[in-house]
């Protein structure tokens, strides 16, 4: 048996914390935005997850790789600084062009819509760079986590 | 005829002495709130580290746990038990184990599993076979594995230390990957993880307070930690290139919160001395076995569940009853 005082405390806790919880969730949801330059990215696929430390790769204190080294576009402009998956989509059909192209281009402007699939793009980008610099993980399991 | 003679003639076998009695003032309510207070340093540390999302999870979790218990009280038409603080405690401990970005529906589901399936279905406080919080975490981990991938959950946080969940890094990439973590840093909470599970020093201080006040048993905490230490030490000596040292295992994952706040739950842990020692050490050793050669990143949750399961059996090791029951 619990006393009325204890019961009141429990009710007060439940109600106050409910309000605080719901408000905090709401505020956090509205104010949350993915940072312009991501900290870390988690790539997911059939071969498990790959955690990519974007910040360490890009910052001068880290490896200082220029944006354009990875984020490319036929013309070097702001359009290149999109998320990799926008263009290298992994569900992309053979002849259809990625939706992201249509943000700036009319469909008749787009000539070559054959874009490397996401997995291949990442593999060539990561592996080639690691090899060139003789740094970074080499084995599959050093990046992929099942 | 005296009262005693009257009772004897009625064949009553249990005779109590005369009133007045003096209650020492301890109660379940006091116990619950003291455990919550002891957990506060670790919780506040998590809130400072993760900000508003952590407040959201902690507050919502405690309130949901109380509401689930209240709902069950009404459904089963029993007296209201939320006043004893146990539901609030369950909510708080649940929040301490999860990442700060846990979605609201997972908190709602998790507290439902803890309070209703973990505790109320068994008959309420004291009747639960498993630690309700541990059971809820286990079920959530199996149902939504990605929610407990701390590396993924905390992707957008950038704190002043290596942003890798240490125990997961060890599991996936071996001891080389955890070289940047020093014991001092881990103890001071410079690691990612559950909201209230990473600040080792805070958890230890809270645990010591609870031991001194007699709310939890030192026998279980100590043997749990010794079990983890001994098992990890043996693995480490056997092959240091594959298995991390004992100090790392004690300061990462759910080890400390498991030792002081989870394994010590009343109804799912033994009451006699030897069973307590076996229970604690068993859970500790199992934790390391699961971490080092099992499939899961952390072993604390499943180790405690397994020991909860054998708890009734362990409590059979007890002093022989004096006399004979006719």
Describe this structure in words.
The complex is a heterodimer of chains A (146) and B (326). Chain A is mostly helical. Chain A folds into two domains: 1-33; 41-145, Cytochrome C3 (Alpha-Beta Complex), CATH 3.90.10. Helix content of chain A is 39%, strand content 8%. Chain A is elongated. Chain A starts with a helix and ends with a strand. The model of chain B has no long low-confidence stretch (mean pLDDT 92). With 326 residues, chain B is an all-alpha fold. Chain B has helices at 3-9, 28-50, 52-75, 86-97, 104-117, 132-143, 150-153, 166-173, 183-187, 200-213, 218-238, 246-251, 255-262, 273-293, 300-314. In chain B, helix 2 packs antiparallel against helix 3 (52-75), helix 6 crosses helix 15 (300-314) and helix 14 runs antiparallel to helix 15. Chain B has 15 helices and no strands. Chain A binds chain B through residues 1-3, 6-7, 9-11, 13-18, 20-22, 24-25, 27-28, 31, 34-35, 38-42, 49, 51, 53, 55, 141-142, 145, and chain B through 29, 52-53, 55-64, 66-67, 70, 79-85, 87-88, 104, 149, 151-152, 155-158, 163-164, 168, 172-173.
Give a short synopsis of this structure.
The complex is a heterodimer of chains A (about 150) and B (about 325). Chain A is mainly alpha-helical.
Number of domains of chain B: 1
**Residue runs with pLDDT of under 50 for 5 or more positions of chain B:** none
Portion in helices of chain A: 25-40%
How many helical stretches of chain A?
5
* Oligomeric composition of the shown chains: heterodimer
Q: According to CATH, what is the topology of the largest domain in chain A? A: Cytochrome C3
Structural class based on helices, strands and sheet pairing of chain A = mainly alpha
CATH architecture of the largest domain in chain A: Alpha-Beta Complex
Into which percentage range does the β-strand content of chain B fall? Answer: under 5%
Let me know the number of strands of chain A: 3
């Amino acid at each position: 048996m619990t006393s009325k005082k204890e019961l009141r405390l429990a009710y007060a806790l439940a109600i106050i914390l409910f309000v605080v919880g719901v408000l905090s969730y709401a505020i956090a949801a509205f104010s949350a935005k993915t940072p312009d330059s991501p900290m870390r990215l988690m790539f997911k696929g059939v071969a498990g997850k790959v955690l990519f430390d974007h910040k360490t790769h890009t910052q001068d204190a880290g490896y200082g790789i220029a944006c354009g080294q990875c984020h490319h576009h036929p013309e070097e402009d702001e359009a290149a600084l999109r998320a990799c998956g926008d263009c290298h989509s992994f569900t992309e059909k053979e002849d259809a062009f990625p939706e992201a192209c249509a943000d700036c281009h009319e469909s008749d402007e787009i000539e070559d819509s054959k874009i490397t699939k996401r997995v291949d793009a990442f593999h060539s980008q990561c592996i080639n760079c690691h090899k060139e610099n003789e740094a970074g993980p080499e084995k599959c399991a050093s990046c992929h986590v099942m | 005829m005296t009262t005693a003679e009257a009772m004897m003639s009625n064949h009553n076998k249990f005779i109590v002495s005369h009133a007045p009695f003096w209650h020492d003032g301890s109660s379940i309510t006091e116990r619950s709130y003291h455990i919550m207070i002891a957990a506060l340093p670790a919780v506040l540390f998590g809130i400072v580290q993760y900000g508003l999302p952590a407040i959201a999870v902690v507050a919502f979790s405690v309130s949901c746990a109380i509401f689930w218990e209240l709902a069950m009280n009404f459904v089963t038409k029993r007296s209201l038990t939320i006043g004893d603080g146990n539901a609030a405690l369950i909510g708080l401990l649940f929040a301490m184990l999860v990442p700060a970005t846990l979605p609201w529906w997972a908190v709602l589901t998790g507290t439902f599993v803890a309070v209703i399936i973990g505790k109320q279905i068994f008959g309420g406080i004291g009747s639960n076979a498993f630690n309700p919080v541990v059971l809820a975490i286990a079920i959530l981990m199996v149902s939504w594995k990605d929610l407990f991938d701390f590396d993924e959950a905390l992707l957008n946080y950038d704190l002043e230390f290596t942003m890798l969940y240490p125990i997961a890094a060890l599991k996936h990439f071996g001891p080389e990957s955890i070289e940047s973590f020093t014991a001092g840093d881990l103890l001071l909470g410079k690691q990612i993880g559950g909201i209230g599970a990473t600040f080792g020093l805070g958890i230890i201080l809270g645990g010591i307070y609870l031991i001194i006040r007699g709310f939890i048993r030192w026998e279980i905490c100590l043997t749990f930690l010794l079990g983890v230490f001994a098992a990890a030490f043996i693995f480490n000596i056997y092959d240091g290139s594959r298995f991390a040292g004992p100090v790392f295992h004690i300061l990462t994952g759910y080890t400390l919160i498991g030792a002081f706040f989870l394994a010590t739950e009343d109804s799912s842990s033994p009451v006699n001395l030897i069973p307590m020692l076996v229970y604690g050490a068993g859970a500790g050793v199992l934790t390391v076995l699961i971490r080092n050669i099992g499939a899961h990143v952390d072993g604390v949750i499943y180790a405690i569940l397994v020991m909860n399961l054998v708890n009734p059996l362990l409590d059979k090791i007890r002093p022989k009853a004096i006399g004979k029951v006719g």
